[in-house]
Amino acid sequence: MAESQLSAASPSAHPMANPGYGKRSVPDQLPGTPHDFVHLPPREAAIAAYLDRLPDGADISVKTLAKQLPYGQCALSTALNRIQQAGHLRRGRECVTADDGSSRWITRSWWSRTARDDDWWTAFTRGDAPRPQTARPTRSRAHILLAALGRTAPVLSLSESDCATLAPLVTDWFQRGASEDDVLRALTAGLPTPVHHPASLVRNRLTSKLPPPPDPRPPLRVLECANCGAPGRPESLPGGRCSACRGEHTPARPPAPLSAPKVHDRAAQIRAAISQRRQEKAHT
Q1: DSSP letters of 241-277?
Q2: Residues 138 and 124 in one domain
Q3: What is the pTM of this model?
């Protein structure tokens, strides 16, 4: 079965997108479990699980996925639309500012392991703090990263108590826009030999290498219809699709108002017609 082949596919061999593009994980996701995508059909669940394993920055365009997975572009496009309708994916554009102060719009594919409803995505698009998820209270994202740190660097294995103590420092990184990969690189690059006190080293690096605060300005984001790519406000794209692609009737737009010169010309024509009418009556 294609789904079983997909479960064995290695995300490490998946191509990365150009810097700034590709998969972008949204914040405050629940920890992964084997049941994250059971609400999806088997094919979509397998593809969603594969996407979830990919690192941020991975190229998740239909063309690239078709080269990596046992599905054609048509099947993948349909599957991604269903995954989007289930609340795991949104595609659109975001305005980013470069180091030199210039701004440009770039394509984004936002991913959430945790299914989100349309209201959550609307708040996310505006840059508001989306309402928190209330299901399945579990260890935080920061705690999970620290608990798994020993698998990346065995000399940095931490106790449960160490993870609980250091997790707020990792959370500070996440709040400043850092990804899991950013934190791991900062903690594991250029380790001394030997490491005598893993918790002390991790605390020192989390504190001394903390990224600067992000720009407080709200992000500029535009979502696009999953079917036709038409941009629109989040509330006009429930499930990631526009009204036309959902088969709904779109009311005709009212005619554009006349410009000032046209209004004056029209008024002059009416006055001339009235004057002529009066003259005709005077001669009868």
Answers
A1: --TTTTTPPPPPPPPPPPPHHHHHHHHHHHHHHHHHH
A2: no
A3: 0.53
